[in-house]
């Protein structure tokens, strides 16, 4: 008679609460918890800033855009008027359409010329020659000044009737005029000022040019491609993501221009509303006429317009932006 012995399945012993394994697990979990708390502590300044400076004021302005609210009104005097501000804006406000026209003209002329100037200078500074670092810094200097008040004051003095520009033209026998006081030329001076600040996109173009493989130029040269064909068929496609980035950035920045128009026109968008950029008109309605409800509606229309424009730019990117991995995003 054969005896068989059945062995019982081995059940792994569960570690007790006091076992080393359990203590190790609790230690790992506690460590992740402490890391999470530390992460939120470090993020708290940004989160507080996001809520206090951006999110809550935006929601408040959205509410005010549906009200008749003045700066001098109390919250008890705020009157809900629904879409009346938006209806007035689109049907009974000629200055709104004037501001839109001036802003579109400013952005459509300034942004392409600024990017073209930035790319041209970046191509020149991409060569290795003595003192190129100094020139890169000098060309970037206007962008460091940005849209400062001091720079706008200098610009206004340069293009005044007795300014340096007219003095220079008089050297060639040309009689100038008060450019910033002429409705036909005032916006042009703002456009030139915007183009002159091409340093930031120039630096980005320069970084993009450094990433173009030299082998591509060598192969194109072996195939007999002229410098112009190398630029058009090698440089431009390889640089298209950088061009796209600068285009989006400078378009948004162009629509947001304010300081130069405010200083040169003394805050009124003159002469004859020729420099009445949208942001300046929004400022006038909110802080000169104290109509915060209407100014909030202007701000939200502006935000939605910039958002739609950015989406349109991104949707066109798939047709002309080429990435190195072949993924046309």
Q: Taking strands numbered 1, 2, ... along the chain, how are they ordered across the largest sheet?
A: 1-2
Oligomeric category: single chain
Uncertain stretches: 1-6
Residue share in helices? 55-70%
Largest sheet: 2 strands, antiparallel
How many strands in all?
A: 2
Rg, Å, rounded: 30 Å
Our measurement of the CA-to-CA distance between the termini, rounded to an integer number of angstroms, reads 78 Å
Percent of residues in β-strands: under 5%
**What's the SSE pattern?**
HEEHHHHHHHHHHHH
Summarize model confidence as the mean pLDDT. Answer: 86
DSSP helix count?
Answer: 13
- Shape by Cα distribution: flat
How is this structure best described in words?
The chain is an all-alpha fold and 329 residues long. The chain has helices spanning 20-64, 84-91, 94-125, 132-145, 149-158, 164-171, 186-196, 199-210, 214-222, 227-255, 259-264, 278-288, 292-320, and strands spanning 67-68, 79-80. It has a two-stranded antiparallel sheet with strand order 1-2. Helix 3 (94-125) crosses helix 12. It is flat and about 95 Å long.
Ordered list of secondary-structure elements with their pairings:
Blueprint: H1 20-64, E1 67-68, E2 79-80, H2 84-91, H3 94-125, H4 132-145, H5 149-158, H6 164-171, H7 186-196, H8 199-210, H9 214-222, H10 227-255, H11 259-264, H12 278-288, H13 292-320
Antiparallel strand pairs: 1-2
Helix pairs in contact: 1-13, 3-7, 3-8, 3-10, 3-12, 4-8, 8-10, 10-13, 12-13
The gist of it:
The chain has 329 residues and is mostly helical.
Jot down its keywords.
two-stranded antiparallel sheet; disordered N terminus; 2 strands; 1% strand; single chain; mainly alpha; 329 residues; flat
